[in-house]
TrEMBL record:
It comes from the Bacteria. It comes from Brooklawnia propionicigenes. This is Citrate synthase. It catalyses: oxaloacetate + acetyl-CoA + H2O = citrate + CoA + H(+). Keywords: Transferase, Tricarboxylic acid cycle.
Amino acid sequence: TGYTTYDDGLANTASTMSAITYIDGDAGVLRYRGYPIEQLAKESTFLETAYLVIYGELPTAAELATWEDRIRRKTMVDERMREFFKMFPRRSHPMPVLASGLMMLSTYSFDSVDYTPEAIEKATERLIAKVPTLAAYGYKNSRGEAMLYPDNSLSYIENFLRMSFAYPTEPYEFHDEITRALDVLLILHADHEQNCSTSTVRLIGSSGANIYASVAGGVNALSGPLHGGANQAVVEMLSAIKESGISVKEYVQQVKDKKAGIKLMGFGHRIYKNYDPRAAIIKEHADKVMSLKAGRRDLLKLAQELEHAALEDDYFTERKLYPNVDFYSGLIYEAMGFPKEMFTVLFAIGRLPGWIAQWRELVTNPKRKIGRPRQIYIGEGERDYVPLGDR
Ligand code: CMC
């Protein structure tokens, strides 16, 4: 019935109406609920931005205090869940562990398919509060280290840093610059309209599946190297270039020759045909964090040389390929002390408010329809079944 249009990669299909995030890819503009990303990165905190993305307005001082308090009081996970993390093999990649943790969290929620405002509110707060705990436990498991309880006297970011890096036997020392840099990085990731993982969250949610199942799907979609996994892939690419001893020019040439599908990871974007505004902000923080801790300055230098070479090359300029959010973020995470397997988990913590806001926007729309794309069939025409002995 009707007609079907073919849109490869859904590049020209608007799948929803949304009031959350505005992007002008040609001008390099990104706004959450109307507020420019540059202002939020400078003035806001991640928890405040999460509130803005989810509820649509900046909170008053009283609303913010209540929100922070409600989140703080939900950071613990059931004791059995801590045991659950120990079931994963040592050195498990923390991304599938996070996705599994979210599904386990759903089994502790008896209202997870309930669309009452109270149930949605509770699930929202539980997710924002507990995902950093799950992320830190996935990390601690991969190292065989003790999983710490949250310390609710700390801020959201400090609490996560402590759960990731502290040991039960030693005090943990915070660096304000690192705490703030992580806060800013999470703000920059908070939403990005209908990207692959967010579309996945919406598609799962459109069937009536609960928010935990939808967000776990988002984590899995994010894990791929063309999406959130690019931040890990960038550092792997830089290390491989360094180890192989080839020059930046030679690597750029290999990318241009499209040999073995090599890409310049951290470059290009479906929507930004100009500098990704998030990459510009991250770049400013890279030097600051790296001067504090022993980050891979050699890799930062290499990244800067690669960027310079690409921005001067017709192949990249003709295709409008510029650094994206993932180009420098991995190097900062690395300088903070995170191993590369954690980079995409950090992206997931940042993107969580966006996934939640988009799921809420979907399920509170009374005209919501199940997502169900069409296809163009290119298989065999009708044919008769051939008995096994005759094949
Ligand atoms: N290196 C080399 N060539 C590239 C790259 C790249 N990073 N990105 C795109 N191209 C080329 C591509 O080969 C194609 O060339 P041609 O016209 O000769 O066939 C042209 O540019 C258009 O690319 P496309 O693949 O049609 O563009 P797309 O919108 O489908 O893909 C993308 C967007 C982000 C998947 C892609 O640019 C890419 O693979 N980049 C590297 C991975 C990456 O950094 N991903 C993170 C994206 S931003 C944050 C996030 O979503 O997580």
